[in-house]
Amino acid sequence: MVFNFKKRWKRPHKVGLVLSGGGLRGIGHLGAIKALEEHGYRPSVISGCSMGAIIGAFYAAGYTADAMLSIIEKNNLFPTTSFRLRTSGFLDSHFVSRMIQKHIPANTFESLKTPLYVAATNFTSGQIEYFHSGTLDEALLASSSVPLMFPAVKHKGSIYYDGGILDNLPVKPLLGQCKFLIGVHVNAPNRIMADKLSPAKVFDRITHLAIGHSVAESAKKCNLFLEPPEMLQFGMFEKKEVMAIYEYVYTYVSQRLTNV
Q1: Which residues are catalytic?
Q2: What is the helix, strand, coil percentage profile of the chain, to 5?
């Protein structure tokens, strides 16, 4: 794994795409990708965090939005067999590795058709790091390992957790690399009624308010920032909402691009 910004490509990219984290809400990125392509936006470099990194990896490997949606519908992203009592997290995240190894068998950044950067939090140093070479599934596991839910990823004496802790919209590795930068954030912290705050929603709310400031700063660096409102109406782990999330974000982005 390499954690610097050494550019692998000499020519500047026309369009860069940055995909935020968001649990199952990250499915919304598929709707955004579909709408962006329909309006002529095709990225030549991608950066992502957590679920955005996983979606970004499949997209960088050449999968279409429709193909990715089909894979997700046929696979349970949070299978019950992944639930285990353990000190580092109660979900076994290795179903991510199995999915990547099945559908992207080369399992390396170098094998991807489009260059990809993946954000992860180095919990040991307290710094954000960006993977863009080496083993793919390990980087994606690090980027999507939500503390207390998934076990940390250990690498060269350090432990890694979800990149969203420090950078949920990782524009930094793409700055100076592309002429037009698009950011998609699927966790807009909309207002919520006090009587609707279940323990799960409180945890969800705290998480997204905590990362909101860094997203706002990153959004300023985008030429086009897409943030569908009211995304917290969808649960982070409710697979039954997959199509509703996809269609909601697709409609929002399509309408936004019509007015651009």
Answers
A1: 50, 162
A2: 45, 20, 40
